[in-house]
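Provenance and format

Records in this collection were gathered into a single text stream. Each protein contributes a sequence line and a token line. The two records reproduced below are adjacent in the stream.
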Amino acid sequence: MKKENSLRKRAQLESLIWHVNSCQPKPGERIVDFGAGSGHLGLLVAFLYPDCEVVLVEPNAVRYETSISRAKELGLGNCTGFMGTLDEFAMVDEEGSAGCWEEDPVDPNR
């Protein structure tokens, strides 16, 4: 990965983790990463919050398989996946999901 790309990815992760931290997830809560891609954010969240359930939702089969494979390699037993879209996940998710939004320290206009 080029240095410029890695710096951009790091900034994205830092911003998103700030939002997750501001929600103060409690043990047993579910955190859902919609459009999880290959799992960069969701895997970090699963690592940082081992007492929470993290679900990686990704419609692309290759990215989905990559994210699930990475979770297994890292031993993240609290991390599961769902291959499909947000709408498909919502139709099968019985518990629902809650959101938490706080002001972004990097861009307060978000």
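Adjacent record:
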Amino acid sequence: MKTATRLGRKVRALRTQEGMTQTALAERLGISAGYLNLIEHDRRPLTAAVLLRLGQVFDLDLNAFATGGDAQLTADALEVFGDPLFQRLPPAEPAETPAPDAPATDTAAAPQ
């Protein structure tokens, strides 16, 4: 993983500073403890959704997670997602995964 995306150490430091276990933080973030472990060891990316939940759980400025040129991107994202429009939206539903034996569907229009 690229150096610029290594945020796992920051997540782990924040969690241990607050005296939380991985299981406790994972529950508050709505993810599994195993997935949090992978994030903390930089084996999975820190997604925007998880980053936003971290900000809510710990009431912190998300710019603390920005590095270098990412600071402006983070500021822009926070401005966009801070719009009241996003506060009225219900949480996103997880995408449905088709059954392994389900036939493939063609979304292109059939010729007439």
